Amino acid sequence: MTATVEEHFEATVAADQRIEPRDWLPDAYRKTMIRQIAQHAHSEIIGMQPEGNWITRAPSLRRKAILLAKVQDEAGHGLYLYSAAETLGADRTELTELLISRRQKYSSIFNYPTLTFADVGVIGWLVDGAAICNQVPLCRSSYGPYARAMIRICKEESFHQRQGYELLMTMMRGTPEQQAMVQEATNRFWWPSLMMFGPPDGDSPNTAQSMAWKIKRHTNDDLRQRFVDMSVPQAEALGVTLPDPLLAWNEDRGHYDFGPIDWSELKRVIAGDGPCNAERVERRRRAHEDGAWVREAASVHAAKESER
Amino acid sequence: MTATVEEHFEATVAADQRIEPRDWLPDAYRKTMIRQIAQHAHSEIIGMQPEGNWITRAPSLRRKAILLAKVQDEAGHGLYLYSAAETLGADRTELTELLISRRQKYSSIFNYPTLTFADVGVIGWLVDGAAICNQVPLCRSSYGPYARAMIRICKEESFHQRQGYELLMTMMRGTPEQQAMVQEATNRFWWPSLMMFGPPDGDSPNTAQSMAWKIKRHTNDDLRQRFVDMSVPQAEALGVTLPDPLLAWNEDRGHYDFGPIDWSELKRVIAGDGPCNAERVERRRRAHEDGAWVREAASVHAAKESER
Amino acid sequence: RPELARLCVALGDDALVMSHRLQQWCTNAPELEDEVALANIGLDLLGQARWLYTRAGAVDGTGRSEDDFAFLRSESEFLNVRLVELPNGDFAELVARLLVFSTWRLAVLTRLVSYVDPVVAAIAAKGVKEVTYHRDYAARWCVRLGDGTAYSRERMRAGLDTVWPFVWELFDRAEPDLRVEFDEVLGRVLSAATLAVPTVADRADVLGKVGRDGVHTEAMGYLIADLQSVARANPGAVW
Amino acid sequence: RPELARLCVALGDDALVMSHRLQQWCTNAPELEDEVALANIGLDLLGQARWLYTRAGAVDGTGRSEDDFAFLRSESEFLNVRLVELPNGDFAELVARLLVFSTWRLAVLTRLVSYVDPVVAAIAAKGVKEVTYHRDYAARWCVRLGDGTAYSRERMRAGLDTVWPFVWELFDRAEPDLRVEFDEVLGRVLSAATLAVPTVADRADVLGKVGRDGVHTEAMGYLIADLQSVARANPGAVW
């Protein structure tokens, strides 16, 4: 019997078909998948903070509405993703505990501060852009509920990315101060965006198993290159300079070469001492703890109702 | 013996000399005096809030420094006055409890909100102006420590009044928006300033005893008239209109006539439901309660030190 | 025309300022479902403000844009009721405020559906649908918290006491039937929540002037400073 | 000259922003004596900022006034260290911040008393007297709280942990003897307070940039919005 379900799992994955919640799956796959989905969900929720920081201050009502809707979408993404994790037997409250006790990670990019309204645009352009590069292949993830969540999320992220880029275009047509703001925000977010693809392939121990399971479909370095190739012409169209003097088209490779990434920066931020790690987790913890009595009241009330 | 000390008290007061802490004094005098001084102290402390509201937003560094120094002076006045009350056997902590439990009052003028930076100037001009009218006679109070505190306080208040008036002068020479701000603030503070002198004489039961004890030297209506007579030419010099169509020079009386005061407004604010009563007392309570552990630590530390 | 413009500005300001307080809840809600719901309500109100400002600028002859109204007016030109500008408290205070606000606004918008100005009537018709949802959201939470735990009941009661002193202002100079409708709805919700109607005193106006006259609380200046900070710091910029 | 101007702006910004946080304590102090003391420290620092800005405007060739520096620069032009802009915590956090800040600033100003620019040297000489008092005030409270009750000791420890991750930035690109002096003073105060030197990790810069480079924390934008709100809303006004 065990042999049969295992064979079914292997065959499904090999045929590029999808594993569904009713299917048997190996414990290691379940654990890896829960961790991947949970970290993605945490990233959506923590990712609300740097952009949420500018909602009340957005300088036009149209941009305010766009930004509020975007942050709302991120809460929605978090919800789908926690639901997908729950199909694997995880519990949303437990996952939240893992986040606020710092036992699970979220994308390190959100540990950088947002310092001007241009950051909202640059996050849309570069951070959402990098996220999409990472996530499009996940729409073909071997785990069905995750793959379906990713299809919806990627569609919305592309929309956000276009809105971010459009904001930057508008700002680059504006005052010199606005142009300087866009350049400065680009300077701060370029390298952290490149780090969003994770460590270099030689230093990424889980990649092989994840690719075999079709949880992951491209290496970190492949995706990073794709992102760079995509971003350079976008930066040119915008009129901003990417902060890398070594960035240059390589005719032979058919790709842009770029300068060395400061991996010690990424390690430090992942380790927890980045510019905003403490604030991000603390804010999430406070919201969770402040909301405890509300959630308790709701469940007590529901119990009363079901007794009536 | 009792006859002697009573005679001494009566004689001292009659001769316009000062009662000192070492002197015997009637219980009723002590109680009245403590209440008067405490309410004055509370007014200084609560009065820090409406002006304190504009320190961080003061639009020039010079005005910021002037305002911060003024609010600091008010804290200092509160300190002298609580000390004067302590010479009569009162306890500062108990007086603070009476304030935050709303069992003792403070000047009702501080229950109006400060809504623009012009309010800072108008409070200096009108509110400090009215306070000075009320307080100059108190420099001759029969109770020595209070009289001496008042001399110092009046000196500083006059300085604050001039600064407030000077701010308004500057604003009236400024943009139309600044001029409108000054007029609007004047409209809001004029009537409440007139109410600072208390109810009309016919409705002021404690006046006779207080005047006999030389705690009070002029009736409410006398002081109010003095304030109106002083303010009208100041308003003219400033170029603002006082919001009273009945205001007019009365040749026969040698004073300005003015319109009827809405005493129901004053009663409502004194009763506790004015625009800011709840916030003012709540803020003071919170500061007091938040500071409890600090005061306790200081006293425990002092005890440790004295044991060493 | 000036009355129509004033109506649009007042209702627009209520919506914008209430939306601002909801925006400040973002990333602080007790559950993700509430993050989504509160952002949604904030977005609806922001949308209403935008339509109303645009209409005001068209009818008052100034041609001002929605952004001119939001970012270039001074505090005393904002005509919102004081209820919406109060500093945020806990979730129960938010529920109380939203319940009061949307019950009142729904009654107001329902009457405006047949208003003489067709643009305002259309904005009101759209708003009725949205605010009906807002009121239901608040009412459901009010019942859950009032009839939940002892602690949540006490918080809900305290939340209602915090906002109640500002309720009278919503009906100042209004037709009496508006208040009757409001009291009737609130009565039903509070009864389902096993809570009494608050008995706290009204908060005074300032010498007869209230939010609708541009006279606000001290919290409003900080809200405006936040709202307008980027716009004011970049004069001439287009976003 | 550009270096001199930059020095004046950096030290002026530290003083202005720290003063701002002290201003926000106004009416919230645990005792009236502390109201007076904190306002006094805030005033001293405000005065230092004014002199330093005036000097900066004179030497950088722009002729900018003290108010131009305070009210018309954007966040990224403020060069203060991040320590001073952190949101206010409880009284122990204030004591910790003030102790760290004034110990550091006193060491800096002491060296500037013999600076080549006579104006800066004079400002520093006046500042040394003032900041000596600030440091003593903070040190006394640190000892009282550290060696007070169990609760106050825990608060004082937590306050130090809150500010400590930003201490390294004060000594970034500075002569090492400055840090030696700082550690020596802090060591003595903490020892009298029966507290250990914090061991929390440094808070990272942003890709090598810190407050002195105009890269701040998210709290700074709100501080600037508050500081500049009236000035920005009234362009062309004189106060």
Automatic annotation (TrEMBL), chains A, B:
<feature type="compositionally biased region" description="Basic and acidic residues">
    <location>
        <begin position="283"/>
        <end position="293"/>
    </location>
</feature>
<dbReference type="InterPro" id="IPR011881">
    <property type="entry name" value="PaaA"/>
</dbReference>
<feature type="region of interest" description="Disordered">
    <location>
        <begin position="283"/>
        <end position="308"/>
    </location>
</feature>
<dbReference type="InterPro" id="IPR009078">
    <property type="entry name" value="Ferritin-like_SF"/>
</dbReference>
<dbReference type="Pfam" id="PF05138">
    <property type="entry name" value="PaaA_PaaC"/>
</dbReference>
<dbReference type="InterPro" id="IPR052703">
    <property type="entry name" value="Aromatic_CoA_ox/epox"/>
</dbReference>
<dbReference type="InterPro" id="IPR012347">
    <property type="entry name" value="Ferritin-like"/>
</dbReference>
<protein>
    <submittedName>
        <fullName>1,2-phenylacetyl-CoA epoxidase subunit PaaA</fullName>
    </submittedName>
</protein>
<dbReference type="InterPro" id="IPR007814">
    <property type="entry name" value="PaaA_PaaC"/>
</dbReference>
